[in-house]
Amino acid sequence: MLLIHCPYCEEDRPEVEFVYGGEAHIARPLDPAALSDEDWEHYLYIRRNPRGRHHERWRHTHGCGRFFNAVRDTVSDRFEQTYKAGEPRR
Amino acid sequence: MSGYRLPAGGRIDRAAPLDFTFDGRAYRGFAGDNLASALVASGQMLFGRSFKYHRPRGILGMGTEEPNALVTVDRGATAPGWGRATPNLRAPSVALYQGLNAQSQNRFPSLRFDLGAVNDRLGALFPAGFYNKTFMWPRSAWEKLYEPAIRRMAGLGASPTTRDPDHYDATYAHCEVLVVGGGLAGIEAALSAAQDGGRVILIDEQDELGGGALADRALWGELADKTMALRRLGNVTVLTRTTAFGYYHQNFVGAVEQLTDHLAPEQAKGARERLWRIRAGEVVLAQGAIERPLVFDGNDVPGVMLSSAGRTLAVRYGVAVGRAVAVMAVHDSGWRDAMAMKAAGVGVVAVIDLRSDVAPDLVAAARAAGIALHLGHAVTSVSGRHGVSGVTFAANGTGHAQQLAVDALLMAGGWTPTVHLWSHAKGSLRWDADWGAYLPDVAQENCRAVGAGAGAWDMGSGLALGTLPGPKPIWQTKAFVDFQNDVKARDIDLAVREGMRSIEHIKRYTTNGMATDQGKTSNLNGLQIASGSLAKPVTDIGLTTFRPPYTPQTFGALMGHHKDALFQPIRKTVIDGWAADHGAVFENVAQWRRARYFPQGSEDMHAAVARECLAVRERVGMFDASTLGKIEVVGPDAAEFLNRMYTNPWKALQPGRCRYGLLLREDGFITDDGVSARLAPDRFHLTTTTGGAARVLAMMEDYLQTEWSDLDVWLTSTTEQWAVIAVQGPLARAVIAPLVEGIDLSPSAFPHMAIREGRICGVPTRLFRVSFTGELGFEVNVPAEHGRMVWQAIHAAGQAHGITPYGTETMHVLRAEKGYVIVGQDTDGTLTPDDAGMAWAVGTKKPDFVGKRSLSRPDMAAPGRKQLVGLLTEDPQDVLEEGAQIVADPDQPVPMTMLGHVTSSYHSATLGRSIAMAVIADGRARDGQVIHVPMPGRTIRARVTASTVFYDPEGSRLDV
Fold it and tell me: Å from B770 to nearest chain A CA?
């Protein structure tokens, strides 16, 4: 059971309060129609899946309800940091 | 011949005898005994039959490492259908109580005479990879022949068939320091941690603290003092009979405390076990070490056991394992055990040690104790089948063979530090040549290991071997490595010869270490043997990964209170009680309990649904639609937001009007739908499917918070705030008219797909004029607290019109007659709007909406996509099975080409025949074609209809 720091609530809370939201910092294209099929496929499906530092989204579903970003090490599962949605990649 | 109780000694209470039975025979032990010590004390050396070969087996160890002596303990039935039989308990871990009833396992007809033992004679037929190699073909034989046979012959105890009457507690705990393991190292760690004043929890799996010190008289004084010191500390919680089974992220440890299994059933009160979820600042692992068996021909004969087990029996339980006992050692600890047993009164006759060079003080002490010594020798075979009658040994295993008449043989093969929990927490390990084992190296968590488990305990020195040297080649021996899974040294050697290189492959091919004991006694020996066969250092072969649980745990403990009514919440609408009072048959939809139909008299579902359907078509019906998901969307940008979320245009929708919305995922597939109403320029009342409510809200929040945070919109779930009563049928207006105030119900003032706010039965309502039946219909939304009152009022007012309450089954039939889809039943996450025949719902002129770009990907318009169509069986009384597969050619040999499957299928009383919907490749182009639905024993023919609308295609019944 991970402990996750919600950057909005500013509290460490147990994993069961959160829902994972996939890789972070993948912005929806402003004009999807302008994208080639290949670029759109890349946006929809292609993810980095790194070994090590992973930027990912979480939502404090059973808390404040906010989406935020986290840096987690995929080998150790250790959270390096969490930060609010909209803040630059860390 | 066998074990017996020593006249004095041990930590048992000889003044408190306890009677118990094993395989129906009566025995007597003492308070403080466990099942294994009490049976050995009574001369019972045979405990079970082995997994694969059904070889007779005794105990190997006296702790949780025990692989052989698995028993079923029956604590008796509390009522018919309820029982408390627990299989696969390790006899040394079963505390003795008055009336204990235990049975051996995996034998037929009896433990002493077991028919399955023929497998042992046929051993050559069961080599490594036996399952992979043998039961390949024909495939059909698996189900009927191989699997039942294997399950009967191989295997552990029988799974209970009765329900468990016990209850199981669960709790959370937080502490500064958690110490796992209550031997002297763990006790010292707890005492030291307690100095800082923080909360300390000390966990130990046995019924008293002490660990290995319990088998060392010289340490009893120190143990008593330190245990007393612990008890005096207010900040230390000691949990005995508690197993820390898993060590998870961020110092989260799961442990199960046994509360009543050590008590006679009539004395047991309260919960049987308690699951502890402990979050600790620091974890100290003091798990100790487990002795390794030696691998030689006949090392599994009952009476051959670990040296530490013989010592524990003698010192802690006052039990001699035999009259004439020999120790086969490659490690100093065997000598120390021999002397401790001798001092306790056990007839230790010889120590055989493969080493020629043993510490002089040990040799001198053993000689002084009158024990014969055979240095530089190894045991090569064991006589006896149900018990040891003698051993053969030889110089270096290969020299001149000598015989020794003994009735027990103890193995001292060195020690393996217990690093299971350390590994659960992803701590790294390092090979230690002195221990011949892996030791904790670098921790990932705030964790440290102490004592023998850390390699920081003086166990003496010794060799780390694969097999003892012997006169026979390895493939002629029955030298066991994994006792519980019946893996022999030759199986590991064979796996290597057949090409396995990594220990992970060797493990899975041979099943070494894959039994319920997870290789506690076999992993290191297996590694050493593979290392020898591969001629590679042990460290080049790798080590298998330890995973929770450390020892098997009951499902009950893990489940805790989450069973029966508490397994998952049941959501009930405010009208549920009325439905129950009126004989509704219920079904579960997502977490909701919904009325499925309302049988009258002796009606079955078919009859009830036919009556309900006809009532709605001919007069009027009422339906509890409160479970519909509802979201209030508010804010100046609400219309813009919905315009981006849904496929169809929303900005031009006038207040007071409703629209059907289709929601896609970004990949272009349908994920939800529902009718929504605009109440004001900045306010919408959305509805979602019953099962999709939470998902849709989360998806909308995601876009709103992370993609379009510039939009000023607020989303609020109102699912439970509104009760929804659908009144449907030609007489619907007449029924509600007398109850409604402030709303003009006339068709011109209140058309189909409109919403009005007013009052009904004196309470506020949002009244929708919508229909999921194809008839004139209203959905009466009222604040939930008034829902039942309004329902009853409508029901009463409807009596004059023959109003009929109906359930979800009728709702399904009525909507299917009209071809209305249910997202999640007729769609499965792979259908586009066009696939579902709903291209009309897509606003192609909109520049963007969620999923729009995906709809123009080439695959989304490619031929061959499955499309939703109607099916009419040639025999109108045949009702297809939902989920049934559809083929074009029923004569094609298996495997046939599947065109698609049936998604919805009902008997329609209105149409007097069956109707169905299906997704079929290129379905609409197959209009009029006959397809085939193969079912067991017959194939059903049906005709495709491109339209899914079976009733009132022009929609004339809606607009009245």
Answer: 32
Residues of B with CB under 8 A from a CB of A: 248-250, 252, 277, 279, 426, 444, 666-667, 698, 701-702, 705-707, 709, 847-848, 852-854, 857-858
Distance CA B311, CA B327 (A): 11
Q: Residue B530: which of B543, B514, B520 has the closest Cα?
A: B543
Specify the long-range contacts of residues B740-746, CB closer than 8 Å, at least 24 apart.
Answer: B740/B765, B740/B767, B743/B767
CA distance B448 to B284: 5
> What distance in Å separates the CA atoms of residue A71 and residue B854, rounded to the nearest whole number?
30
Q: What is the token pair recorded at B346?
A: 């056990």
Give pTM, 2 decimals. Answer: 0.88
pLDDT band at B158 (very low <50, low <70, confident <90, very high): confident
Question: What are phi and psi for residue B292, nearest 5 degrees?
Answer: -95, 135
Q: Hey, what are B481's tokens?
A: 């490595």
Cα distance between residue B893 and residue B705, in whole Å:
54
Q: What are phi and psi of B211, to 5 degrees?
A: 55, -130
Cα gap B762→B928, rounded to integer Å = 53
Is the CB of residue B686 less than 8 Å from the CB of residue B632? yes
Separation of alpha carbons B634 and B686, rounded Å: 11
Contact criterion met (CB below 8 Å) for B688 and B857 = no
User: What tens digit of pLDDT does each residue of A37-58 get?
Assistant: 999 999 999 999 999 999 999 9
Bridge partners (DSSP) of residue B664 are B670
Alpha carbon of A2: minimum distance to chain B alpha carbons (Å): 6
Look at the block and give the residue holding tokens 């209809």.
B945
Q: How far apart are CA B91 and CA B758, in angstroms?
A: 73
Tell me, what's the pLDDT at B49?
87
Beta carbons of B852 and B662 less than 8 angstroms apart: no
3-state secondary structure chain A: CCEEEECCCCEEEEHHHCEEEEECCCCCCCCHHHCCHHHHHHHHHCCCCCCCEEEEEEECCCCCCCEEEEEEECCCCCEEEEEECCCCCC
pLDDT at B883: 97
**How many residue contacts between A and B have a Cβ separation below 8 Å?**
54
A76 in contact with B, Cβ within 8 Å: yes
SS3 B401: strand
Measured CA to CA, the distance from residue B123 to residue B153 in angstroms comes to 14
